[in-house]
Structures are given as C-alpha cells and as structure tokens.
C-alpha cells in the first residue's frame, strides 16, 4: 500500500492532478490487476448477503415507496428491481435507488469501521444496475462485476481508514459516492480522466449532515446510501459525456476538507494499493448476524449467552443497574452518551431502536435472541418489564475499548465492550466480549455456508423455494456469468405478494 499525503492547498498552488486524491483513486480504479480468488469468493458472499436482507424488506414502507419511484421509470435495456419480474427493466439509476433502499432498510448487511463508518456492500446496487443495463452493449460479464466490486470495496474501506467524517457530523455516505463512481469506472473500463471527474462530482453531491442518524431517526437512514449510489451513476454518466467536477475536490481551499472536515490545516494519510497490487479490502470487512447497528453485534452475542447462563439478569426486579463500558463511538452514537431521549422511548421508530444499545441489550438479555422483526415490534418495545430493565442500562466510554476500536492490528481491533451488572442483592456480574461471533475472529465466523443460511432464513415466507434455489445458483456462479445472465441476478417475488402492500402515489 502507498500512504498518500492529503492536505488543503491554496488555489495559487495549482496542485497537479497527479497529486490529488481523486486522481489517485481513479488510478486504482483503472489498474487492470486481477482479483484474488479469496476476494472473488467474498464478493459472491456479499452479493448473496445483500439479496438476503433486500428480500426480507420487500414489503416494508420505505422499500415499497422507493420501488414505486423506480416503477415510474421503465427503460430498455435497463436494470432489474428486487421483487419484480426479471423481464421488467428500469432506468439504472432508479433501479440502483430502489435496490439500495431494500438492501439498507433493515441495517443488516456488511460493515467496516475505522476512522469513519461504512457499509461497503452499498456499492453493489449501483454496480449491478449499470452492469445489467449495459451488459449486451458493452459485453459485460460477471467477471467485470467482480472486478468493479473489488474496486468499490477497496476505495471505500481505504477512505474510511483515514478520513473521519462523523467527527464533523458529515454522514458516512460521503465516502460511498466516490467509491461507487470508482467502481463504475472499473466496470466500464473508463480512462482515468473520466473516473477522476466522476469521483469529484460524486463527492461534491453526496456530502450531507449526520442528522439522518441522530435523534428521531427516520426512513431516510435507508435512503441516504441509495441516493449516493444513484448520484454516482449520474456523475459517471455526466463524466462520460465530457462534463467536469470541482477541482481539486478534496484539497481545494474551498473544498470538502477545508470547509467540511478538519479545515485548512488538515492532514490525512490515505492508504491505497500501489500499481499492480491486489485489491484486498473486502477481506477486512464483516457482515451482521443480527439486524442491528454493528457495534451492537458482539454485545447481542454476549447478552444472549448471559440469558442462558444467568437468567436472573432478565428480571428488572433483580437488576439494580447495567453499565456497558465500550468505545467512544458506541457510547456517543448508539449509547446513552448520545443524550437522545428517543433511545429510551418505547414508542420510538425501528430505525431509532436499531441505534439504541440500551434497548438492544435489554431485549437480548430477556429473549436470548435478536430477530429482525420480533425484536423491534411495538408490543415488544413497550413491554413493561423490558422498559424497566432498559432504563437501568447506560453506557460509558472506556479508553481501552476506544483504542481497540481504532487499532490497525486485526488481532486487537474490537467492537465490543464490558458489561458490569449490579444486582439488587449487591452482587455483581462482569463479562466482556471483543468481537461478534460472526466476525472473522469470532466464535462462529461467517463463511459461504452461513451466508447461504442467512439468505434462506430471510427468504422464508417471502420467496418460493424454487426462486431461492435459482437465485443461489446464479449468485454462486457470478464470476462466470455471461452478459445474458447478469439480468438473472435478482430475486422475484411470487405472484401477488407485492400487491398486498399499496404503493403510495407521488409526483412521478
């Protein structure tokens, strides 16, 4: 890897393009390096993972609304939309939009956490949509899709390693716009100049505040990454037509770093593969076994173990207090350090409960599980004994957990915490967990078998058995798919299922 020095430059410097971060990212995108077999395997896993969580969300309100918007934009050759027949095609940016919302709605797919946060599988919907749309015209294949996704993961993960957006309350999708644009550059074999302009446009148009993940969290949490994917497609389209971006987009004296991030004196070291170096970043990412914010994954696993071993901890009459000692991020974003009263509100939205570690730990202690539907049901959140236990749970930042959260050593990096539970009889229970069971270093790491099982579980009651098997066959053959077969890389709901939920009307 090459660690690139990135800082703000006055316009008078006339910073050469070759020294700009957007250009260096573009060079990664156009590098024809082949994809390692283990990276190919993981790309397939994540395509299956995305389809799994999208399938489970097909009838949820935000997904229905986004699909309705895509329905208003039929197009040929076009791209497919999850749930609809594969023969129905839509404008690729709107297909990416609808599919991106479906993938993100349950907050249940992969993650990478470092200086900032990300769900790098958000790169998949725009890449697949453009690949399906241009498959025949460009002769694109599954192999091209794999190469593009390796780029998308690499760029987003490397940006997340180096540049903190959340510190300045900028939403993390500002790293997704550039990564998706770079991925599309790889997919289409575009020249570096075109990719450079697309990256700049995508970044410029995907910077927004983190209020989408603060306070009363709404359905926009699922829409934000879908918009970044849609915007990236549009940015690439404009760049291909010869249209430019603000330059330099990162380093300019009125650019993103100077005015949205660390300011004129900022200094970052962004790691990117050197020419000819394989793009391995996807191997450093991890998916979710549970449908909740990633920092809750390990704590859910600990709570469900304590449910089995210490059932008395589920009884609020026996528990005086629970303190979760954890990282800065967990405390201030999904813990009591956020100072969001909504995190303790039994009438809060699903999106808010998903970002409340006190609620999540309370339910996992009582139920010994975490379910993407049952655990968020209004009647579950409002159960009196749950509310009583929930309001006894707080978080506290622990410098050691924060250090491990930011460690670059995979053996040290951790997203867990320590539970210190005081019982009403004065006794204490202290237990900790570093990584989730499904993490590569966890008790039960996810491999192909677990990704397939997750798809089957989430497709149960939604897709016909034959459709489940058809999709799994196509997805697992992704590296060998022909142009004609790329359109089969979708899930089709049984007749009548989507019609059970009314599509809200809008402008289109």
Automatic annotation (TrEMBL):
InterPro entries: MmgE/PrpD_sf, MmgE/PrpD_sf_1, MmgE/PrpD_sf_2, MmgE_PrpD, MmgE_PrpD_C, MmgE_PrpD_N
Catalytic activity, EC: 4.2.1.79
Keywords, comma-separated and alphabetical: Lyase
Catalytic activity as recorded in UniProt: (2S,3S)-2-methylcitrate = 2-methyl-cis-aconitate + H2O
SUPFAM superfamilies: 2-methylcitrate dehydratase PrpD (SSF103378)
Pfam family, one: MmgE_PrpD_C
Molecular function via GO: 2-methylcitrate dehydratase activity
Domain MmgE/PrpD N-terminal: start-end pairs: 19-268
Domain MmgE/PrpD C-terminal residues, every copy: 290-478
TM stretches of this protein: none
Matching PANTHER family: 2-METHYLCITRATE DEHYDRATASE, 2-METHYLCITRATE DEHYDRATASE-RELATED
Family, per entry: Belongs to the PrpD family.
Oligomeric form and interacting partners: Monomer.
Protein name: 2-methylcitrate dehydratase
Lineage: Bacteria, Bacillati, Actinomycetota, Actinomycetes, Micrococcales
């Amino acid at each position: 890897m090459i660690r690139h020095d990135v800082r703000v430059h006055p316009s008078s410097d006339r910073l050469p393009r070759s020294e700009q971060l957007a250009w260096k990212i573009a060079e990664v995108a156009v590098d024809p390096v082949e994809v390692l077999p283990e990276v190919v395997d993981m790309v397939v896993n994540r395509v299956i993972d995305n389809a799994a969580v999208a399938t489970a969300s097909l009838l949820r309100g935000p997904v229905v609304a986004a699909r309705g918007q895509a329905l208003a934009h039929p197009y040929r050759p076009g791209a497919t939309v999850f749930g609809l027949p594969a023969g129905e095609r839509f404008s690729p940016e709107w297909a990416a939009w609808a599919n991106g919302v479906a993938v993100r709605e349950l907050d249940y797919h992969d993650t990478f956490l470092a200086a900032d946060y990300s769900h790098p599988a958000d790169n998949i919907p725009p890449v697949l949509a453009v690949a399906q749309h241009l498959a025949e015209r460009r002769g694109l294949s599954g192999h091209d899709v794999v190469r593009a996704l390796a780029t998308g993961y690499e760029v987003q993960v490397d940006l997340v390693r180096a540049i903190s957006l959340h510190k300045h309350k900028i939403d993390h999708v500002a790293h997704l716009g550039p990564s998706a644009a770079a991925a599309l550059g790889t997919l289409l074999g575009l020249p570096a100049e075109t990719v450079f302009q697309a990256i700049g446009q995508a970044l410029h148009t995907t910077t927004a505040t983190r209020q989408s993940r603060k306070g009363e969290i709404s359905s926009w949490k699922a829409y934000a990454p879908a918009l970044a994917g849609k915007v990236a497609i549009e940015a690439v389209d404009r760049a291909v037509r010869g249209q430019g971006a603000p330059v330099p987009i990162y380093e300019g004296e009125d650019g993103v770093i100077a005015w949205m991030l660390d300011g004129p004196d900022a200094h970052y070291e962004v790691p990117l593969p050197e020419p000819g170096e394989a793009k391995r970043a996807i191997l450093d990412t991890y998916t979710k076994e549970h449908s909740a914010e990633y920092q809750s994954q390990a704590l859910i696993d600990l709570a469900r173990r304590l449910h089995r071993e210490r059932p008395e901890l589920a009884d609020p009459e026996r528990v005086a207090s629970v303190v979760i000692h954890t990282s800065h991020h967990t405390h201030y974003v999904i813990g009591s350090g956020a100072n969001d009263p909504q995190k303790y509100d039994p009438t809060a939205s699903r999106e808010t409960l998903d970002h409340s570690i006190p609620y999540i730990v309370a339910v996992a202690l009582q139920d010994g599980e975490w379910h993407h539907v049952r655990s968020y049901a209004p009647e579950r959140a409002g159960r009196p004994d749950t509310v009583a236990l929930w309001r006894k749970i707080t978080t506290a930042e622990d410098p050691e957990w924060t250090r491990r959260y930011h460690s670059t050593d995979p053996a040290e990096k951790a997203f867990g915490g320590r539970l210190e539970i005081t019982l009403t009889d004065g006794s204490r229970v202290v237990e900790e967990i570093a990584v989730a069971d499904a993490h590569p270093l966890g008790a039960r790491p996810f491999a192909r078998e677990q990704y397939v099982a997750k798809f089957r579980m989430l497709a149960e009651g939604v897709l016909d058995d034959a459709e489940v098997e058809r999709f799994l066959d196509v997805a697992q053959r992704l590296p060998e798919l022909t142009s004609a077969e790329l359109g089969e890389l979708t899930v089709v709901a049984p007749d009548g299922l989507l019609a059970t939920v009314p599509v809200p009307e809008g402008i289109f």
